[in-house]
């Protein structure tokens, strides 16, 4: 029998890209090239250029991923992850991190360098997105429209890649489709269409009801939800009845929906099935998940940081609401904007969640923000840890200590330590992504929702010096 040079018994994983993979890379490369050329002010017709860029990136990535994973047997292949420069903090990883970080710095603080002109015609990179913005809203693109479009394209294209890679696992397929739909519709299309329907040129302090608004974001993640301009905008007659409905839904999501759903299914309903930050982490960030630190010191830092941010946003919001209803810009003699809102927006809203949270994927893993900073994750984590039905059950007798579960836990949980003892995993930081279960070769781990009773206790089987015995 003739052997395929790239696929044999000794080497069941295709080594070299075939012609279709190369074609897919070429198509995606053309799409990226158009983006870079537009950034350099190369005169490209905006409508045609944007179409080539978006279709090229999505289509090329899909073709490449299809040929890459469909040539392999079903199952998760993480071969050689510690030997690839891009995903093991090598030279390519540092270059990617610097580029991502630099892009976020320009996006947040120097948008004029990517072509955004608030008082004139856009240029370069931002101008490329003007036709799409005009289609949705009847006005030129902003840097945030550009970012939202690229963000959505990234989750869509790399989400399709993720679906091919994890095609044998129904849980991964369902939650990936969920985050793609949530980002495409709830975070992108619906807000842009609503703004186009309601936008009439009126703004409050330069902002409207849908400014920087993702309708699936919930306070405290959407930290400016209770800012004065936002509350005013939601009460504007021009925005009714959507404005009041948006206000009611936002409050209900925090007070009722979030705790109830977290009680029944854990924080995974949001962090792994809905959230845009989690969606990008699970798709674009999937190759970097093994870079999360599993050290005890990282766990200690995680608890201090995420709960510190959560306290910060609670205090800031309390001061903001007080200032709004009592018509004062101060609380206890402190200027609310300069003392609370501005520092939080700069340090947490921009630097931590954006620049570090995404820019540092190649250095610190794909869930830096979710693990160390997200106040929404911190809020749900407390509920999940002390009052929830969610847990990951383990069958210690089947564990072979391969370490796959710990290696690929993006939240830095040492899953193997629990599995070896046969203990249920009940951690505030767990986002229920299910990758630990998916990569386990023995079926040791299982995501479950069950009665609260005994979910923290040891299971009925104990493995120790007396071999295996039943627990009383």
Automatic annotation (TrEMBL):
Origin organism of this chain? Roseivirga pacifica
**In the record, what terms sit under GO molecular function?**
4 iron, 4 sulfur cluster binding; metal ion binding
Gene3D superfamilies noted in UniProt: 3.30.70.20
Q: Which PANTHER family match?
A: FERREDOXIN-TYPE PROTEIN NAPH
Q: What is this protein called?
A: 4Fe-4S binding domain-containing protein
Name the GO cellular-component terms. Answer: plasma membrane
Any idea where the 4Fe-4S ferredoxin-type domain is? 390-418, 421-450
Q: Where are the transmembrane segments?
A: 23-40, 46-69, 90-110, 144-164, 176-194, 244-265, 304-324, 344-364
The entry's keywords: 4Fe-4S, Electron transport, Iron, Iron-sulfur, Membrane, Metal-binding, Transmembrane, Transmembrane helix, Transport
């Amino acid at each position: 029998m003739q052997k395929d040079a790239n696929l044999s018994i000794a080497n069941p994983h295709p080594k070299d890209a075939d012609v279709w993979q190369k074609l897919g890379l070429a198509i995606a490369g053309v799409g990226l090239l158009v983006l870079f050329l537009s950034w350099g002010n190369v005169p490209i017709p905006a409508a045609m250029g944007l179409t080539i860029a978006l279709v090229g990136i999505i289509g090329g990535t899909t073709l490449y991923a299809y040929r890459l994973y469909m040539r392999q047997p079903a199952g998760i292949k993480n071969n050689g992850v510690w030997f690839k420069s891009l995903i093991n903090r090598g030279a390519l990883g540092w270059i990617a991190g610097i580029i991502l970080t630099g892009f976020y710095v320009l996006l947040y603080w120097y948008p004029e360098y990517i072509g955004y002109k608030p008082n004139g015609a856009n240029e370069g990179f931002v101008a490329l997105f003007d036709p799409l913005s005009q289609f949705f809203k009847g006005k030129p693109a902003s840097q945030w429209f550009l970012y939202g479009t690229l963000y959505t394209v990234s989750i869509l294209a790399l989400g399709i890649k993720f679906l091919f890679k994890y095609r044998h696992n129904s849980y991964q397929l369902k939650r990936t489709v969920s985050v793609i739909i949530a980002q495409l519709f709830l975070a992108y299309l619906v807000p842009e269409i609503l703004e186009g329907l309601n936008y009439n040129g009126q703004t409050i302090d330069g902002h409207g009801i849908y400014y920087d608004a993702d309708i699936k974001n919930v306070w405290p993640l959407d930290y400016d939800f209770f800012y004065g301009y936002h509350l005013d905008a939601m009460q504007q007659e021009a925005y009714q009845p959507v404005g009041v409905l948006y206000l009611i839904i936002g409050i209900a999501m925090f007070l009722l929906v979030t705790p109830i759903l977290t009680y029944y299914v854990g924080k995974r309903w949001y962090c792994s099935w809905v959230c845009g930050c989690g969606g990008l982490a699970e798709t674009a960030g999937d190759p970097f998940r093994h870079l999360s630190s599993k050290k005890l010191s990282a766990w200690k830092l995680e608890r201090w940081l995420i709960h510190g941010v959560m306290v910060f946003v609670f205090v800031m919001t309390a001061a903001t609401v007080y200032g709004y209803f009592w018509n004062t810009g101060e609380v206890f003699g402190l200027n609310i904007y300069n003392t609370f809102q501005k520092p939080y927006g700069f340090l947490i809203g921009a630097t931590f969640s954006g620049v570090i949270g995404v820019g540092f994927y190649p250095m610190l893993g794909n869930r830096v923000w979710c693990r160390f900073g997200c106040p929404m994750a911190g809020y749900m984590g407390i509920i999940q840890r002390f009052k929830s039905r969610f847990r990951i059950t383990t069958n210690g007798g089947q564990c072979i200590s391969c370490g796959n579960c710990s290696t690929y836990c993006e939240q830095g949980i040492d899953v193997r330590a629990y599995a070896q003892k046969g203990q249920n995993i009940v951690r505030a930081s767990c986002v229920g992504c299910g990758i630990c279960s998916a990569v386990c070769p023995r079926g040791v781990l299982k995501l479950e929702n069950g009665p609260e009773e005994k979910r923290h206790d040891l299971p009925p089987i104990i493995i120790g010096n007396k071999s295996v015995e039943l627990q009383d």
